[in-house]
Hints:
It is a single chain. The protein has helices spanning 21-32, 41-50, 105-120, 133-139; strands spanning 4-6, 9-13, 59-65, 70-77, 90-96, 124-129, 143-148, 156-162. It is of the alpha+beta class. The protein has one domain: Aminopeptidase (3-Layer(aba) Sandwich), CATH 3.40.630.30. The longest helix has 16 residues, at 105-120. One of its GO terms (cellular component) is cytoplasm.
Amino acid sequence: MDRLTQPSIAIELLADRPDLIAELARLRWHEWSRHPGREDPQWWIDTTRRETGRALPPVTFVAIDETGNASGGIGLVPVEHPELADRGPWVVGAVVRPDRRGRGVGGTLLTGLKLWATRTGIERLWVSTGGHPADFYIHCGFRTTDLVDLPGRDRLTILTVQLGTTD
């Protein structure tokens, strides 16, 4: 993927920046470590490392600030929830460092992911989330398709976007 930039931020494949795997994993750990089975930072490092593909999902993009640090990240995996394996690929692990939120980092990450997916031949993306993050995806062109209750989870909002159209 060509490097996508905006003032003071660059979006790159994490596969091209393996030096930022642990840093991005720490951002994810701080955001979601309260989930059972995900309390150990090493779980996040291992998961983030597994999601550093290049040609096909799983793939992860990292937002890099002017100092070379990770400001955020976003991933794409073939299946997020086995119960929803008839859909995919799935946007996962979207996180922005707290001091960078509200500055367009998340939108720039998602734009980079959509561009890569389109170039890869992917026609539709899916995301599952709850609460306020659903508004972010709707603002970025996704539309809600379902509300789903999966075992051991809060109610999830399922959203999708058709790439290359205004769906």
